[in-house]
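During the no-cost extension, the postdoctoral fellow (Dr. R.K.) reprocessed legacy sequence entries with the updated structure-token encoder. One reprocessed record is reproduced below for audit purposes.
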Amino acid sequence: MGSKNSGRSGLIVNIAIFAVAVSVAVMLLAVAVVRGYKLQITNKITGFSNHIQINRLDFNKSYETNPFWSDSTVENSLKQDSRVDFFQPFATKAGIIKTNTEFEGIVLKGIDSSFNWHFIQSCIVSGNVIHITDSVSNSIVISLHTAQKLKLKLGDALIIYFINQDGAVPRARKFLISGFYDTGFSDLDAIYGIVDMRHIQKLNNWNKQEITGYEIRLKDFNQLKAAYEDILVETPMHLQVKTVMDLFPQLFDWLGLLDLNVIVIIVLMVVVACINMSTAILILIVERSKLIGVFKAMGAQNFQIQQIFVYMAARLIGIGLLIGNIIGLGIAFTQYQFGWIKLNQEAYYLSQVPIYLTPLDILWINAGAFVVCLIIMLLPAQFVSRINPIKTIRLD
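Re-encoded structure tokens follow.
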């Protein structure tokens, strides 16, 4: 009978350890995937539009923006801000691409020689970026999405038609395709092309100093709120300041919901681990009720016997955490290195499951799981106080 009980309790203990291990592995992977996904999507959005934009204060929400003169006061203030990595002027204008068989809407983003190509360069899949010199460049960089839709190739001439706000006859411009980019973010790729800003200034009859706005990139995204507030104070009243969260509120609201999913997963996994560990401890206490009775008959206090089972629970939880970390971190590492789990890029904006996990994440997941499980273990340990030493010894 004793061997049967030992075998049964051993199985329950192994199941409890397995439950803790799986729970910790799932928590680590959930945090790693969600953090990685949020980081990658945020990098894509901020890579194209940067962290903060300054443009004219009006009610115009279209791509046919009203300009303002480049402001040396604003520029000097941004140069002196240690949180600012770089800033650059830009201009936008909507147009229609016309080929022999197809047409497609596009928004041209005009840039000058100060434009930082780091993000776009990393997304170039074919060709080269535009080189801005003293003479106006007729090159254009368009998305791979647009190129495939219109069956365009590198070096093709591209005719784009523009309609001014005054209702004048549409004007056409010819560009030569110098490169294709692919951010994987279809909402942006389907819209934008990049050209020399002087084309947009000429099409809109703007002065060379007139622009749509400034894009500002910070050294640390976590400083966004503080930097925004300070830049807002330094910006003239006729200009408005917007963060990337203001420009893409739905996307950031959606990313915020992912945190809720992680919280739900962590709570469920902790509950599963606690239930299994509690069951294992209760079974161990019941099977060792005679031994507990003997200890009590010899004068042992309830809290002393409870400590034995709490220490036992801590050991089992520790084993589960160790196994869980090996499993979770092992899967995360192989995915980070080899990207063996793929995603549908059109649906998820990424081609593979991203991974991002810091040592602090690993620490709080393990410490939190250990402390919560150990506290919960105090409840089944209270069952020791209900064991009557006389009954258990007489029962034998």
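Residues 2-49 form the longest helix (48 residues). The longest strand covers residues 84-98. The remaining legacy entries will be reprocessed before the final report is submitted.
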